[in-house]
Amino acid sequence: EAQVTQNPRYLITVTGKKLTVTCSQNMNHEYMSWYRQDPGLGLRQIYYSMNVEVTDKGDVPEGYKVSRKEKRNFPLILESPSPNQTSLYFCASQRTGGDTDTQYFGPGTRLTVL
Amino acid sequence: AQSVAQPEDQVNVAEGNPLTVKCTYSVSGNPYLFWYVQYPNRGLQFLLKYITGDNLVKGSYGFEAEFNKSQTSFHLKKPSALVSDSALYFCAVRPTGGFKTIFGAGTRLFVKA
Question: 3-class secondary structure for A57-84?
């Protein structure tokens, strides 16, 4: 089954404690992206990657890092989380063969930073 | 700046009645338009998209959307709402030639039995 998986699904942590949210897709997609979803703001892009070792900032990259060492994986790293990073996070992937293609989303990770 | 507006935070309809969820956009050129649905504790699921051609696009679960270039709108419609349609709906726009997608804030649809 074609899917995007994220782990963990729920995470409660404290300010300053480094964490990683993993994302993996099994569709051989080149393009992957991280979004955060906040009420009234919709989805905002944090980082994206066009392919292995190619990443770039989205609209709200501050406080986040990413890496793309393998095509299927695109982890999101919060080196020193703060309460304003409490949010619902989604990973998504897409082929780059056509810019009309849809994105496939993971189930989301709800992060709470105390 | 490029943007997508969903003017209604919530839409309430009775089961069996037609529904409309509104979306307007401000993006130059001829962007691609998408609708996604999000059920509780789930990721976004693709409903339909407009690329070119017929202004009325049909999608999953009986949904359709009407593209209006002059009004830069892409309203989501369904002739007869179901309780199971209750969810959060996102309109999204992608400028041509790239992969960045701009999302609206979302509209919560509540269908009452």
Answer: ECCCCCCCEECCCCCCECCEEECCCCHH
